Amino acid sequence: MKILGIETSCDETAAAVVADGARILSNKIASQVEIHARYGGIVPEVASRQHILAIIPIIKQALAEANVSWGDINGIAATIGPGLAGSLLVGVNVAKAIALARKLPITGVNHLEGHIYANWLNGRRVHFPLVCLIVSGGHSDLVLMKGHGDYVMLGRTRDDAAGEAFDKAARILGLGYPGGPAIEQAAKKGNASVPLPRAWLKGSGDFSFSGVKTALLRLVEAEKIALSASQGSQLPTRDDAAASFQEAVVEVLVTKTITAAKERRVKQILLAGGVASNGLLRRRLTESSPIPTLVPEPILCTDNAAMIAACGYYRFQAGKVDSLELDVVPTLKADYASGEKPSKD
Ligand code: KG4
Ligand code: ZN
User: Fold this and answer.
1) Is the CB of 166 under 6 A from ligand 1?
2) Which domains does the chain carry?
3) Which atom of ligand 1 sits closest to the CA of residue 246?
4) 59, CA 20 to 30 Å: which among 105, 107, 126, 249?
5) C-alpha–C-alpha distance, residues 20 and 121, integer Å
């Protein structure tokens, strides 16, 4: 079964063709990152206009690269939320138009659930029950997954999401946008020598990253970090601060994920979302977890449509076909099942 996946929730226009929820036949992404970098962050109006320009060419490229025609496609999966309303609308309306014209079934996918399904791509073996840490620009969620589409929320961020914290820390340090990759690059040249706090929120699966971000800001304001060469060689450098920040965030994410996985006696740990492309997080989790751990390759961690197609495949398998009334849900909550209630634990 070949699914066309469409993803336009934020600043990437993406289309992919995936066979049987696992085999990637094509995975095309038109990134707007350079356009938004000029503004230091995503400008929603600019994003939706770019999606309109890019969506049809990117779908055509996805079909061509997969070497398939419309007759080979068995269904369409499109992200309905969470995300920017104007961006989501482009993908969902194109998906509905194609579904109508080609008489294809359509299913709406929760973007965060899509991130989780990146772990099924490239034929990897996933075993339930599992704990998944989803760390993206807008979310830091710890989820127990007992089967396809069966989720129990174990924790979420109480303030900044992990990716958001990386982006804000990069801005504080003058490292530019997008912040996650910038911090990771700078950290490679520094030592994690700056003491920064960790919010453990003991007894809870929740996260909090605003404290570590504010602590970093206070140090910069007090000129205790050398952001310019003239500030003297005794102070920790920008690279040291980046390494320390990354260390603090990764330590909390890894420790809390492993604790939750042990408590729930799961068979596997999965990592997902843009922050999962961070090398230190990937390494630390795989090295320190006593439970087998899966991490998608970096290009499948950041926003893409292959993960949406994979998730769509399992939704179709479960009979979750949507009507052409399908609409965007920009504030879709992280119960991961597009409006269905998570099962009670
Ligand atoms: O999943 P994603 O591509 O988009 C959302 O759904 O939000 O995640 C984007 C987030 C951004 O905050 C970005 O800074 C962060 O993921 N990110 C990283 C890295 N690459 C992307 N954070 C840390 N290290 C990275 N290498
Ligand atoms: Zn995402």
Assistant:
1) yes
2) 2-119+300-338 (3.30.420.40), 128-291 (3.30.420.40)
3) 23
4) 126
5) 10
